[in-house]
Specification:
Layout lengths: L3 E2 L15 E4 L11 H7 L3 E7 L1 H11 L9 E5 L2 H4 L5 H15 L5 E6 L1 H5 L4 H12 L4 E6 L9 H10 L13 E5 L4 H14 L4 E4 L14 E5 L5 H9 L3 E3 L6 H15 L4 H18 L1 H7 L3 E4 L6 H12 L2 E7 L8 H6 L6 E5 L1 H11 L3 E4 L1 H9 L4 E3 L2 H4 L8 H19 L1
Parallel strand pairs: 1-10, 2-13, 3-4, 3-5, 5-6, 7-8, 7-9, 9-10, 11-12, 11-14, 12-13, 14-15
Helix pairs in contact: 7-9, 8-11, 10-11, 12-18
């Protein structure tokens, strides 16, 4: 495996050695199919075909908020009673649906067959189906597959599974190729453009993003590649890219002023950017970001917050809210704790922060009720019941659907946490 390139940072010890409370009980979270909602908007010539039930179709349609007359880049091949009873050949049915889809949508260049709970229950081999269909429709269309099943994945892991399925298809960069930065994780186009401007200002000109905006925009990878994770839930994708020779830059995630600065600094250090040139590139956007947080800090300073596990963004968010907005962390729950990817984030948390990994939802609810925080970050299924008990909640899913990375989004990110408190005050008035 290729090395991990460290970033020099004087953040202290924080929670580096803290052992989280590990729970493996009932959990309350969306399945990995939800990742299609932001992935289909990102890869503009790809299509996500879920092989699942009508429930899968309703979930994605509802979460996306797409009108029935729109032409989204996702759909569902419905597994019905005949398929479940073995009265129909599921592979023949799937081939027929794919043929119809590609005939109707000739702009599709990359087709994902996305597994679900029903497709796994009937043991439908989508890997073999993808290979067969890719050979049939090559070179016009590539067909890949991954699982978004709630049996195997939770919420943001759907993106990790999707991107991991693309890594074997990535071209190998030449051994003598110049060093290149690849930013990994789905970001809004406007955020990508902002990062490119700052990095170019530093003198880092060879910058690519994965996933690309178009499937045909190939991202080569090799020993010359330096990886910078933009999202904390890409463990398998990062592992596969490192196995291809890429080196991972250790950094916090680009949330808030401090996180964005340290994230960019890790790239600057890896590419030999001088401190003077780095400061010249970040000074103006950093000043704007710091100013944008002023009003939010007046509302949030001293407020107590409790995180239920949902997206794996919890630790970076907790670091931002604690260090830059003065919030008090009661419990920071995360579905999975990847210590290597979270090393700098853990060091930046206040010492003694209570961490939990996984979930036993009833026990966690008991802890939350006992502490009665000023704000609870949780999934949609818990928000309304907790609101009815008098608690102020923030939907965790909104933090994934909204552009929150980078300097220019720092104020927007802070506002996502001030809104619930404002709403509560207005309702109480």
């Amino acid at each position: 495996m290729s090395p991990v390139i460290p970033i020099r940072a004087d953040f202290g010890k924080g929670c580096t050695d803290v052992m989280p409370l590990v729970e493996r009980g009932q959990r309350e979270v969306f399945c990995g199919l939800t990742g299609i909602i932001w992935l289909h908007r990102k890869i503009q010539d790809a299509f996500f075909l879920v092989v699942g039930s009508r429930t899968c179709a309703h979930l994605i349609q509802s979460a996306a908020g797409v009108m029935i007359f729109a032409e989204p880049r996702f759909g569902t091949a419905i597994i019905d009673e005949r398929d479940l009873a073995g009265l129909a050949d599921a592979n023949e049915e799937l081939d027929r649906v794919v043929d119809q889809l590609l005939a109707r949508r000739p702009e599709i260049k990359l087709l994902f067959l996305v597994g679900s709970c029903p497709s796994e229950v009937i043991k439908l081999d989508l890997s073999r189906a993808a290979s067969r269909l890719s050979a049939q429709h090559s070179p016009t269309v590539r067909v890949l597959n991954y699982s978004g099943s709630g049996i195997e994945t939770t919420f943001t892991q759907g993106e990790d599974a999707c991107l991991a399925s693309m890594v074997p298809e990535m071209a190998s960069s030449p051994v003598n190729a110049p060093k290149e930065l690849v930013i990994v994780g789905t970001l809004a186009d406007v955020v990508e453009d902002q990062f490119v401007r700052i990095l170019n200002h530093m003198g880092i000109d060879r910058v690519r993003f994965f996933p690309p905006r178009r499937a045909q925009d190939h991202v080569p990878i090799g020993p010359n590649t330096r990886l910078l994770l933009a999202q904390p839930f890409l463990a398998e994708t990062a592992r596969l890219m490192q196995a291809r020779g890429a080196s991972l830059l250790v950094a916090p995630f680009p949330l808030g002023v401090e996180g964005t600065s340290a994230w960019l600094q890790s790239a600057a250090t890896a590419f030999g950017v001088t401190p003077e040139r780095f400061q010249a590139a970040v000074a103006a956007p950093m000043a704007r970001a710091e100013a944008s947080l002023t009003r939010a800090k007046l509302q949030l300073d001293g407020k107590r917050i409790f995180f239920f596990p949902d997206s794996q963004l919890e630790i970076p968010l907790a670091r931002f809210l604690s260090r830059e907005l003065g919030m008090k962390l009661l419990e920071v729950g995360t579905p999975y704790l990847h210590r290597q990817h979270m090393a700098v984030e853990l060091a930046m948390l206040p010492e003694g922060t209570f961490l939990s990994e996984g979930q036993d939802v009833e026990k966690q609810l008991d802890r939350c009720r006992a502490l009665h925080p000023d704000m609870v970050v949780c999934g949609l299924g818990l928000a309304n019941p907790l609101e009815s008990e008098g608690m102020t909640t923030k939907w965790a899913i909104e933090l994934v659907f909204t552009p929150i990375q980078g300097y220019d989004q720092a104020g927007d990110l802070a506002e996502l946490f001030t809104r619930p408190l404002t709403r509560r005050m207005r309702l109480a008035a």
